[in-house]
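Progress against Task 2.4 (sequence-to-structure conversion) is shown through the following example record, which the project officer requested during the mid-term review.
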Amino acid sequence: MRVVLFANTDWFLYNFKLSLAKALRARGDEVVLLSPPGEYGLRLRKMGFRWEALPVSRSGINPLAELAAIKRVGDIYREVRPDIVHHFTIKCVIYGSIAARRVGVRRIVNSVTGLGFALLANTVKARLIRPVVLALYRRALRGTHVIFQNADNRDTLAARGVLAHSKVHVIAGDGIDTQRFVSPSSGGEGKSVLMMARLLRSKGIAEFVEAAQQVRAVMPDVRFLLAGEPDPGNPESVDEDALQRWKSLGVVEFLGHRGDALELNQSCSVAVLASTQGEGIPRALLEAAACGKPLVATDVPGCRELVVDGSTGLLVPPSNGSALGDAILRLLHDDVLRERLGTAARELVEQRFSDHCIIAQTFAIYDA
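Structure tokens generated for the chain above:
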């Protein structure tokens, strides 16, 4: 069987879908990886995968350019002749599904990994493009298998009438390698709080900075680490003025993009995600939980699937930096609570979110 995995960045394929690609190859399937060009595509090729570069603008709205992009996807599908195409992220879902139908690919799987700016944001631009996105979703998802990472996202699109003619599934996340992401053999020196996120307003960067000010006023030796960089292709990306203003406060260490997620998670005391909107199943929290770290997150879709309040972590209201700071302080002051929550977080990942669990459920859809 020949399977195409199509995502909006090669980084996404490398970091989130590599285990799936390897599992497909191991069972004898032929895998073709498709994304816009980038350095991670070359890494995938070095690992023996066929990766095709396909220029697709993540934020472009020029009709002629977007129609040309759909044609390019169709041309690749016509040449590859896949048995199954599996699309990730909004544009790939919409464009890939339209292209697949045009060239006669009958088995289409679409993963809605999050609802995105158009459906979650409340800006003028988001409200203007929302009806268009919903209309395209209705067309793209019709007659396909649709995978959601949480029931909230499924129910949101179902209420919009988007899923009436789709076969719908919920699979909790992208999976994580629990053999690689493990608890550290020894505790790190000092206390630190880690948040890994793109620098988007909706990720709660401002609230994280506010919480850092609050905590460090009481515990000045605690380090607050933020690993991630702005995302110019996203309308919610933080601007340079805000970033410089936060840096000047000196309470958060802005690390930029990092390739050492395992080391960062193993060395931190508490992992945080302060999203003000919904998520799919956040990778940052999955990695920290697999490393046996207690979690603090906002009570929004996606986060609350992994963070069980009082069991695997603490939930706080979104857009509330003070509540976030209080929860972090509670964990930093209580070594026993941190240990208990971190152990439970690791156990939950093993039971529900491991690569083994997620890939088995995905294969069941492919083989249906």
